[in-house]
Design goal:
It is globular, with a radius of gyration of 16 Å. Helix content is 24%, strand content 33%. Strands 1-3-4-5-2 form a five-stranded antiparallel β-sheet.
Length: 155
């Protein structure tokens, strides 16, 4: 892999424990019949939300009276293989590193043959509505991100 956030691809792949499955819709393809280059970001978003729900953070953020919410600070996608309509993909997501109020999430997308289609990474920051600034993770939240036993949504 050429991605600058992956040192050892085989080791990097083994660190994923959570995935969400997506099926490529016709509307996500372009005139050449393959997935449009903007679509992997929506797949990452879907998997990220499912991952955060599994951690228990999404429910907290969605409370109407809550002060905290997540913001995507940056996103990177690396394309390794074309994907076509109706393919079923496993979108893996993991917390690669944790900051004071941010988390760097990594993504790995494989088809039903186990071939890597996309990889990616992106920083997400927990923001306070009151201050408009990053709000530190609690020790409990940090522990959730560090839990390596999280299993895929299909299991």
């Amino acid at each position: 892999m050429k991605a600058n956030y992956i040192n050892d691809f085989e080791q990097w792949k083994q660190e994923f424990t959570y995935s969400a499955q997506v099926q490529v819709r016709f509307s996500e393809t372009d005139m050449f019949g393959h997935v449009n280059n903007t679509v992997p970001i929506t797949y990452f978003e879907f998997a990220r939300i499912e991952y955060m729900k599994r951690l228990g953070l999404m429910q907290q953020w969605l409370k109407g009276d809550g002060d905290l919410f997540p913001v995507v600070a940056d996103m990177q996608v690396d394309y390794t293989q074309q994907v076509y309509f109706d393919e079923v993909l496993d979108v893996y997501v993991k917390a690669a590193s944790l900051g004071r109020s941010s988390v760097d999430l990594h993504y790995w997308v494989v088809n039903d043959k186990g071939e890597t289609c996309f990889t990616g990474r992106g920083a997400m920051v927990q923001i306070s509505k009151a201050t408009g600034k990053g709000h530190p993770w609690t020790p409990e939240e940090k522990e959730l991100f560090e839990n390596k036993q999280l299993i895929s949504s299909e299991n």
